[in-house]
Design brief:
This protein starts with a strand and ends in a 9-residue tail after the last helix. The longest helix has about 40 residues, at about 40-80. The radius of gyration is 27 Å and the shape is elongated. Helices cover about 60% and strands about 5% of the residues. Strands 1-2 form a two-stranded antiparallel sheet. It is mainly alpha-helical.
């Protein structure tokens, strides 16, 4: 059972304390993590909370990127199904594009070959 009470102000960031009710098992686990990190209990709670907030933000960003990519793929599939982008590209044209890219990379000081 966890309860959070936050004292906040209407303006700016809250600098008040946060109280969290923990079961004895949760407190023991938190104390063990504090010991592993070499931190006190409060800094460990703060660190874990901030780490989790970062993970949540990263997960949301990844989900947005995946949705965007899926939308682009669906648009491309729709375009192909409507008859667009049906041009066949031969091996010679693909080889020429790669040769051009490799030459460009060499002139910029990049890798000399596709293998690196």
């Amino acid at each position: 059972m966890a309860t959070t009470m936050v004292r906040s102000r209407r303006r700016g960031r809250s600098s008040g304390p946060v109280s969290v009710a923990l079961t004895s098992d949760q407190r023991e686990r938190l104390a063990a993590e504090s010991h592993r990190r070499g931190l006190g209990l409060s800094p460990t709670v703060r660190t874990l909370a901030l780490e989790r907030l970062t993970e949540i933000a990263d997960e949301r960003q990844l989900a947005r990127a995946e949705r965007w990519q899926l939308e682009r793929v669906r648009e491309l599939v729709d375009e192909i199904e409507r008859g667009g982008r049906r041009r066949t590209v031969g091996k010679a044209e693909i080889d020429a594009l790669f040769d051009e890219a490799i030459g460009s990379a060499r002139s910029r000081g990049g890798p000399a070959s596709p293998a690196g």
